[in-house]
């Protein structure tokens, strides 16, 4: 097997350079579009690595006997295995190694918070006090190389085992589950509520961070493998779980995502011009509202405040810049250290001219005579003791209230699970927060129904959702074949 | 894709469409709505279902030409395909035997009121239906309403048909005449606001079915949010029907105008 560290080629490859020579190589820098240009266009900001850059970066990896990076990966990608294939110039093989464990490597290479996962556990970071191997960049490189080569390997599909499974939702959890189950010989049908396949990868993450064409290739691959996709079909509404049973589905994997956007319930929050990041991003990404041809309207704010510090907040504020905002602000109640967004997103936002008003919390919105928001009042905060999340909790600085002129506010303070499926299935155990309760095998209180992704976690990352899909596929297969 | 199988012009600006949507026709109940996207670059708009034929696998929508999308939809013909129709969405109307129910419908709101009138009648209620419009030609679905109502009162602004006056005049007449247990109202937001103000005076429980701006219609975007009893609710998943006396209609009216300027700028797309 290609990932076997003891294979002759791997052993020889390790000997081609001394460790000192490897660790002396500085970490590669991602090729990016110039900040002043990219802040006004939808083109992908990160341009990927060249072959030379990827080869050089791959040499930095020491091919550790106990690769700690893998412990930081939610789907345990064979990281040294794919990187050493890059080093020996076998990029297609590197992509194959990735695909053994990850359904969407081109996506993960772009949107995973590597600095908190694999790269945080890299020996460079842990022991050498140096910058980690750029695992995420290399993952993207291998996946992009394979896609652009036109030689995408479609995994071999075994003979059908006669069993049918349904997937509710076509986001990362659903796609990952579908990919695994089709490879195990099941007939797989994915039901999607929206008119496009891809879930959050399509409606949420903007083009400048994850081009739709990349997602579409992954979906086409699944379709080539035999996965059926049904759009405009809401399980729990258009078809019930009983309908699915009657159609002969032996198991159902619910990956319906985190639907409901949260608001802060402060005065004036329902004024015109204040919208959830879900609405804003859906209009721009899924509905293509900023394109003149599209019938979906969008208000292009000039002074835009985005409330929140996560990736969705960064996506929203950078979208606002691209739609012509002259002032685009992040309003976040904690300090930058506590921001949940990927480091790269914060860096990119700053380079593009986004203002960061950290330790500021909105307390009221004021509207003009037409009911459109024109001003927000923000309370200055300072950091107190750590709270339940382990982050230092913000406390108001008495009397320090600021007024900021705005004409659009995008609220990005989190989401709650989509209630459609939990509400429509009798006997399904749901937590007080509205998430579907599952055991360690991702199995719900109804044995034929499994669940994963944000409908179980309440709001997490693409890679964790994919990990759930993978775990659920394994467990459902065991359940259905026992 | 969903094919249009029949089309009827109720008036110049109000059109009835029967659309192929077999799964929705089977699953829908009174009070449910669908999200429609007319074409590939179309927007998603909510429309309350006016009826269905499970055997034919069709649903009925009644659409008024208001903006770009509704006009494009009204201009489509039999045999044309609508890109997406998804549903049924929202919570179904709560139907039980209440006693006497006044159903007040205005404009195209009369269409989604029909299945509710039918269901209430079948549940054993005495149903008095008040239909209102500006003028005679705009009164729609009168004969179908008569089929399921114990009485139909017609109100027109100009007195060209039925009685002269607003929907509230008709509703008040019934309240003054006999004991009413429930009022159900569907129509323009401003009409529902005044029906609600009237019935509040008489402490008559009232349900209003709201039609707000939506994108996904499944709880994801929050564009449809309104204030009910001081709390923010989503029309798409918490509604579309609410206790009318708790709804902040002024805020709703304001929010309905959220994209007025952008919509105006888009009118050239329908030749205006």
Describe the structure in your own words.
The complex is a heterodimer of chains A (482) and B (272). In chain A, helix 7 runs antiparallel to helix 9 (135-149) and helix 14 crosses helix 15 (311-322). Chain A contains 19 helices and 17 strands. Chain A has helices spanning 8-15, 19-23, 35-38, 51-60, 79-87, 91-101, 105-111, 123-126, 135-149, 172-183, 200-203, 212-224, 241-246, 277-286, 311-322, 343-351, 420-424, 454-457, 462-481; strands at residues 31-32, 46-48, 164-168, 187-191, 228-230, 251-254, 260-261, 274-276, 303-307, 327-332, 355-358, 360-367, 373-386, 392-405, 408-411, 415-416, 449-451. By secondary structure, chain A is α/β, with parallel strands linked by helices. In chain A, the strands form 5 sheets. Chain A has a 5-stranded parallel beta sheet with strand order 5-4-3-6-17. Chain A has a 5-stranded parallel beta sheet with strand order 8-15-9-10-11. The mean pLDDT of chain A is 93. Chain B is α/β, with parallel strands linked by helices and 272 residues long. Helix content of chain B is 28%, strand content 32%. Chain B contains 9 helices and 17 strands. A 7-stranded mixed beta sheet of chain B has the order 12-11-10-9-13-14-17, with helices on both faces. The mean pLDDT of chain B is 93. At the A-B interface, strand 7 and helix 14 of A face helix 1, helix 2, strand 8, strand 15 and helix 8 of B.
């Amino acid at each position: 097997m290609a990932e076997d560290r003891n294979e002759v080629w791997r052993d020889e490859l390790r000997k081609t350079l001394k460790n000192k020579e490897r660790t002396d190589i500085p970490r590669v820098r991602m090729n990016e579009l110039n900040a002043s240009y990219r802040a006004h266009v939808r083109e992908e900001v990160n341009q990927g690595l060249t072959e030379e850059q990827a080869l050089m970066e791959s040499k930095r990896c020491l091919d550790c006997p106990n690769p700690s990076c893998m412990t930081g990966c939610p789907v345990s990608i064979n990281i040294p295995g794919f990187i050493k294939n890059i080093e020996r110039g076998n990029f297609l093989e590197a992509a194959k190694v990735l695909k053994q464990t990850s359904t969407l490597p081109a996506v993960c290479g772009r949107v995973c918070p590597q600095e908190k996962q694999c790269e945080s556990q890299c020996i460079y970071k842990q022991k050498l006090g140096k910058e980690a191997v750029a695992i995420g960049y290399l993952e993207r490189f291998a996946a992009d190389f394979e896609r652009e080569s036109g030689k995408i390997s479609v995994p071999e599909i075994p003979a059908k085992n006669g069993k049918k499974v349904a997937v509710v939702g076509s986001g990362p959890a659903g796609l990952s589950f579908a990919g695994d189950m089709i490879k195990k010989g099941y007939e797989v049908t994915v039901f999607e509520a929206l008119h496009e396949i891809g879930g959050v990868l399509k409606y949420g993450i903007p083009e400048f961070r994850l081009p739709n064409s990349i997602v579409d290739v992954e979906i086409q691959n699944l379709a080539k493998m035999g996965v059926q996709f049904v759009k405009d079909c809401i399980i729990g509404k258009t078809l019930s779980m009983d309908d699915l049973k009657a159609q002969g589905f032996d198991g159902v994997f619910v990956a319906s995502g985190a639907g409901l956007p949260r608001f802060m319930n402060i005065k004036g929050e329902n004024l015109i011009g204040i919208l959830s990041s879900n609405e804003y991003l859906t209009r721009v990404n899924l509905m293509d509202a900023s394109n003149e041809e599209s019938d979906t309207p969008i208000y292009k704010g000039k002074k835009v405040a985005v409330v929140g510090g996560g990736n969705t907040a960064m996506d929203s504020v950078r979208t606002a810049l691209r739609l012509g905002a002259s002032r685009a602000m992040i309003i976040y109640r904690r300090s930058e250290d506590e921001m949940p967004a990927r480091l790269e997103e914060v860096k990119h936002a700053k380079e593009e001219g986004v203002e960061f008003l950290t330790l500021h919390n909105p307390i009221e919105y004021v509207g003009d005579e037409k009911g459109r928001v024109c001003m927000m009042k923000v309370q200055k905060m300072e950091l107190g003791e750590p709270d339940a999340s382990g982050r230092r909790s913000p406390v108001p600085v008495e009397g320090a209230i600021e007024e900021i002129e705005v004409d659009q506010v995008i609220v990005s303070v989190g989401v709650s699970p989509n209630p459609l499926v939990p509400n429509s299935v009798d006997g399904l155990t749901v937590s007080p927060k509205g998430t579907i309760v599952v055991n360690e095998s991702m199995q719900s209180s109804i044995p034929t129904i499994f669940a994963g992704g944000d409908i179980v976690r309440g709001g997490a990352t693409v890679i964790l959702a994919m990990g759930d899909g993978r775990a659920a596929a394994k467990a459902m297969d065991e359940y259905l074949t026992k | 894709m969903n094919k249009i199988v029949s089309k009827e012009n109720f008036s110049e600006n109000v059109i009835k469409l029967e659309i192929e949507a077999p799964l929705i026709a089977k699953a829908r109940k009174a009070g449910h709505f669908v999200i429609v996207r007319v074409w590939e670059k179309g927007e998603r708009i909510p429309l309350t279902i006016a009826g269905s034929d499970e055997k034919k696998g069709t649903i009925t929508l009644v659409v008024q030409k208001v903006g770009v999308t509704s006009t494009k939809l009204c201009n489509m013909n039999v045999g044309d395909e609508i890109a997406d129709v998804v549903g049924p969405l929202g919570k179904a109307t709560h139907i039980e035997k209440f006693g006497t129910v006044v159903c007040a419908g205005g404009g195209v709101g009369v269409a989604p009121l029909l299945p509710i009138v039918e269901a209430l009648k079948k549940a054993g209620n005495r149903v008095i239906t008040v239909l209102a419009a500006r003028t005679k030609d705009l009164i729609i679905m009168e004969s179908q309403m008569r089929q399921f109502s114990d009485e139909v009162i017609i109100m027109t602004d100009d007195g060209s048909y039925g009685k002269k006056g607003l929907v509230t005049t008709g509703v008040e007449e019934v309240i003054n005449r006999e004991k009413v247990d429930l009022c159900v109202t569907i129509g323009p937001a401003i009409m529902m606001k005044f029906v609600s103000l009237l019935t509040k005076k008489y402490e008559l429980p009232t349900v209003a079915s709201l039609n707000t701006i939506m994108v996904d219609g499944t709880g994801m975007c929050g564009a449809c949010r309104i204030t009910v009893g001081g709390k923010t609710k989503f029309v798409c998943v918490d509604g579309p029907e609410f206790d009318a006396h708790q709804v902040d209609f002024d805020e709703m009216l304001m929010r309905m105008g959220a994209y007025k300027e952008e919509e105006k700028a888009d009118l050239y797309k329908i030749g205006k």
